[in-house]
Amino acid sequence: MRGRVNPREAKRMMQRMGLNMNPVENVVEVIIKTSSKQIIVTEPEVAMLEVQGQKMFQISGGQVAEKALDRKAGPTIGEEDVRLVADQTGKSLEEAKKALIESGGDLAKAILLLQS
Within this chain, do residues 64 and 83 fall inside the same structural domain, yes or no? Predict the structure, then answer.
């Protein structure tokens, strides 16, 4: 049975299989957002693995913290988005903002909502 695989040999084997793995330098923090919480990894080691055009990220090490999200807070609606919806529908800025809040910040849904 063989011992450890040397890193150069492992890299060559991965390249032959169409895998490409590179470290992502100077990563300070990684934030993973779910519908109910944020997972924050501080000072992690991150590597990007590319397989047949698909990119995957491997996160290891670092300090992990979880933070619950405030569900009452709605989406952040930008003034530009409000103007765009108002211009596209001919409605007032107040109506456009209300439609954007109802649609969860989705511009297309807000426009359709105001047009129907």
Answer: no
Residues 54 and 85 in one domain: no
Say if residue 62 is in the same domain as residue 98.
no
71/94 Cα distance (integer angstroms): 23
Q: What is the pLDDT of residue 9?
A: 85
Number of domains comprising the chain? 2
Amino acid found at 32: I
Whole-model pTM over 0.70: no
Containing structural domain, residue 43:
7-68
Residue 1 has pLDDT above 60, yes or no: no
